[in-house]
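Input sequence (187 aa), recorded before submission:
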Amino acid sequence: MKTFIRSLTLGALTLGLALIAPNLATAQIVESGPYWTAAASTCTPDKYNNNKHGFLRSDFFFDGSAVGVILARCNVTNPLDGIGATPNWNALIVGFQDPDGTTPHVSVLTRLIRVSRPTGDTSVVATLNSNTDALTTRHERFAQFNASAINFRNYEYYVEIYLIRPSTAVVSPRAYSLRLANVTVVQ
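Predicted structure, token format:
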């Protein structure tokens, strides 16, 4: 099992960036696998996007002057399926760019969804909203959740990526990476 120390953010609190921006609160993030990862461009666009979306390399974004809300869904698979185990994930990590930061004009909204096998009922396990973050450059943030929410014996999982852009006055938001991992915040 690999362990990585990363600079990530939980909500609006920036972690691990003391050398770049000393005025931000700092902590060490320890991230460990096994991982589920996906480039946003590998996710399936919703049929109601009406060709408003674009993909370039790993990025999912609004194509040209398209506006509105677009959606892509990414199937989550169990990296431990061959041995019948469940990963100890507790964080949804998203790479994105929201060009207006906390201003609510454009946003990237990402949700980890759990689907009950017997009933088909869905529930939201984790949500990450880019409007809680002031950075306007490409970066990663994470939303923590209770690891007991992951149970591949009784549930299936997918990630939804919503991009919201009401007008062309602002550049398109982008999502480029998704990851499920175990994250520990060390103060």
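Checked by second reader. The chain has no helices and 14 strands.
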